[in-house]
Amino acid sequence: MYWIYPILKGIGQGFVISLLSFGPSFFTLINSGIKGGKSEGMRVALGIFLSELTLALVCFFGLAQFFIMPGFQIVFTGCAAIAICFMGMRGFYKKYHHFLRSMEEPAAKSKSFFKGFVLNLMNPFALFVWVILLANVSGTYDKANPHYQTSILINLISILFTLFLMDLGKVLLSDFLGRKLSKRVYFYINKYFGLILVIIGCYFFYHFVTLLLDYLL
After folding, report:
1. From CA 46, how far away is CA 119, in angstroms rounded?
2. Degrees to nearest 5, angle at CA 157 with 151 and 160
3. Which of 63, 78, 109, 216 could form a disulfide with 208 if both were Cys (CB 3.0 to 4.6 A apart)?
4. What is the dihedral angle through the alpha carbons of 116, 117, 121, 123, rounded to the nearest 10 degrees?
5. Residue 64 has pLDDT above 70, yes or no
6. For 141-160, b where at least 16 C-beta lie within 10 A, e where not — what string?
């Protein structure tokens, strides 16, 4: 019954992380649920889940130290800042007639999935969260226990599935809201989400400059 504690601990951690997560993938998930309904939102949520799973397994199998190397952080954060700012500006400056045309075109299934997968991977703080989580979870269990590695893995998987279920809840809520909104209102919501992405990208750029100055000086 050693697995009960890691599961309960992981559920609690996943719930808290989900409530505090307001990165680019969060706003893209809500935006997709409003625009494309449950099906598109769930594909984005699945992409986010698989990117989180990738990060968790990479950290678990020993590459966490690579993620905290200054050179990697500088390059990764700089690229993420540029990409997220570009995506945000596209949404913010989109004209209304272009917006209506995009609303009428159903999003490709693979595009929705990869949007969630790539956007979550582009968030440098998602990497750092999993590095910190692994350190925190590892310190919870006794290394002398024969189930040490298994307990850590169960804990991480419980976090992942809790995050996924919370994302599905956000999709259902955004789909409900999307059916209540007019296209004109959603157009301004889309611009608002674009502006938020630009702000997040600018924050990442600030973080990039800080890392670069620390590295050079």
Report:
1. 12
2. 145
3. 78
4. 0
5. no
6. beeeeeeeeebbbbbbbbbb
